[in-house]
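so i finally got all the pieces together for this one. its two components total, 939 residues if u count the protein bits. some of the lines might not be protein, just check the labels. i wanna see the whole assembly predicted at once instead of chain by chain like last time, that was a mess tbh
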Amino acid sequence: MKAIIALSIVGIATLFTGVFNMKNRAVWVAITGLFVALTFTVQDWNTSVRYFSDMIYFNNYAVAFTSIIIVITGLILLLCSDHYRTANNTIADIYGLILFAVVGAIIMVSYQNLAMLFLGIEILSIPLYILAGSNRNDLSSNEASLKYFLMGAFASGFLLFGIALVFGATNSFNLDEIHAAIVHNGGTISPMLSIGVLLILVGFLFKVSAAPFHFWAPDVYEGSPTVITAFMATVVKTAGFAAFFRLFSGSFLEIESVWFNILWVVTVLTLSVGNLTALFQKGMKRLLAYSSISHAGFLMLALLVLSDKATNALIYYSAAYGLSTICAFAVLLAVKEKRGNDSIESFKGLGKENPFLGFFFTIALLSLAGIPPLAGFFGKYYMFASALEVNLKVIVIIAVINAIIGIYYYLRVINIIWSSPDESTADHTIQIGFTYKTVIFVSALLIILIGILPEFLITLI
Amino acid sequence: MVTVLLLLLPVAGALLLLPLKGEKAKQFALITALIQLLVTAYAWSGITDYSKVNFLFDASWIPSMGVHFKVGMDGLSFMLVLLTNLLVPFIIASTQSEKFKKASSFYALILLMQSAMLGVFTALDGFAFYIFWELALIPIFFILLIWGGENRVKVTTKFFIYTIAGSIFMLIGLITLYLNAPERSWDIANLYQANLDADTQCMVFWFIFLAFAIKIPIFPFHTWQPSTYTQAPAAGTMVLSGIMLKMGIYSLFRWLLPVAPQAVADYSQLIMILAIVGVIYASWIAMQQRDLKTLLAYSSMAHVGLIAAGAFSGQLIGIQGAMYQMFSHGIIVVGLFIGVDIIERRTNLRDITLLGGIRNTAPWFSAFFLIIVLGSIALPITSGFVGEIMLLLGIFLHNQWMAAVAGVSVILGAVYMLRMYQKAILGPENETNGSFKDLTTSEMLLIVPIVLLILGLGVYPKPILDLTESIATNFLIK
């Protein structure tokens, strides 16, 4: 909870660094703020306090997700500092907006009241609409912003309507009270409730870009500035799933019959559509965008299981996926800056010219592909194990087939990285800044570390 | 602790040799591998009972899931550890460091691969086994990708996807096993006690079998193999054929046959038929081949098919033959590929119709190569004979008709191997390889020990048979 306050204050402070012409320090203000917030968050471990007459409930679940979000945001801010070093004078705004978005994300993982859920989503989304368009002179960035805004508005509409209907059926916004009302009614599910739940479901599926509600995602991901794409693919997705899981495990567990089959089908679609489309991508950023859709499918397995193990699996997978994605995006940024575009071809010979980048990019991709002993593997393993435990055999097998397809296209990239460099790119040796190196190294180290020693993360809850 | 030492030594060697360059890296790798072999010999002297697990090391790894880092060696494990550590020095010594760009990475990957394969052979915890199984794939993937032949990217991708697809299905099989075991533990003894109903057993069996069948490879899961063997650098081919495919056969014994006895009883007939079909099929294709490496790839597939058939025969002699033949095949196939590599180095050719007349200028090479070829054909007094006769006997006791068909493979083997020898080594001299130099001293040092091993184990196979005898017997009692 203190983290929300701290980050709000630091966010405003960061904006002021722009006013006082200290924009070069803005990033350090922001990172210090995140660090303070992380300290506060970790202190909240095992306290489980309810704030503001039960609007926010900071239990261990919230603490775990908040920590993941803050750590990943920290890495992204480091990337920003290098990426925007030549940028115009709006740089302080960008850091401020990112911090505000993080506040929204933290509210999304800790809400106890549907009003707070809506508030969290909006606090997260509105800065993102701006951030997506922050390359003001770039047409596709503007397009991304507009698309994201329209789709986001749609999704919010669905969500709000669903919340209203659920309120009508259960007479409460509070998760526990909704749950109690549903249990109290026993087997009867009023049409109002089931329609409300389904509308909320649709809203969430939009937000986490699950198929068939994913059409906005690739364009938005591609058009947005790359660091913002990294932010969307990791922090936003993690917060979305944490909120999704919190609501459905907290309130709608007993009325599984309403949403389970739909979610099952959506999961299968998300897994397959994301992967099959990723197979044909030529741009690295688009490839990561589609693969992030299929990773959303793996995360959705946790929603189908909804057990304690699934909670841990969700936390672990989010962390593993987030770190791997950041590592991949950091390399992508470096390559794009030097070679001018992000087509997969431009990665040719990266491994031989710059073994540092090549090696760590390979680690990130292997982790995304789910090869042991990296974190991505353990995330998939744990997801599969928790699903098999409740006998979801068919969907696990579908997920396995998709994992294999995923390996194929990640492998294609690895092949290109380690093939011989072209003449045309041969002399563009990539020199990268210290912060990039730090981000790449730290995230890769964490990928390996939590992959080999996952015990800590899977016993959190 | 010796087991852990064996696992860590190559890793340490790999890390230490990274800064070295060229020939120095090779020498360092070779020294590491030789020390490893010495440690193995020391371990052998310390093993008293082959039926029990020796040098057990057990440490908790992921307590909440019951995962342990548990490694140890019984007779069967030790035999494969011995095979691995025996072959790796030969494989390293057979390479030419000057041919590789970034030689240090190459040797480091070979050593890492050695460590991962030893992990597969010694793991006594399902999860650890799976991790090692996958880990073994990463170094060979990069060896193929970076140092492979013309067509390497396509072939490597196919190889990797094939094997990893099998592995992931195996993972699902293992998880199912784990969830049905009496305790939440990945310990092998616990997994053995898993209580599976008929349907689940069938699923677990096929999922796990798929991974092993691809690795071995058993017909019809073999399509990755010939192209991979052909495109890989010589050392990569040796690792793949000499050691890596043994991972599949070994794991049949350790991780598949004991866990699903009912399914094994139901399907072993089918699998034996597939394996024997594969034997004939591979032999037939081998007869048509002109490329030495492709030919040997198919011949290897034929031999391995026979091993798989013996493993599923349910007869003591068949199972023991399969275990013994793993060892013998490893040595022979590495010998063959060393021979081919020498030919290719001298002439830049692998096409047997373009070769010929090597015998005239290189009598020593031709003589030694002949012995290895005869070992592959399973002529008496070579180690190949011991294994193959046991396998055929086992298959015969299971079903005479199958044995009759499988027996044909020995004849076919003689046909294609001798044809290869005749065309490539004998005959009139071909202008392309007129000045074929005989073996140098270092090549002598490489090939003579292999020839001695083939002959020695053919005359006196007892040391290796002893290693697995009690395991094979216990196997049937269960």
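Chain B has a mean pLDDT of 88.
The interface with chain A takes residues 61-65, 130-131, 134-135, 138, 142, 145-146, 153, 156-157, 160-161, 164-165, 168-169, 171-172, 175-176, 178-179 of chain B (CB under 8 Å).
anyway lmk what u think
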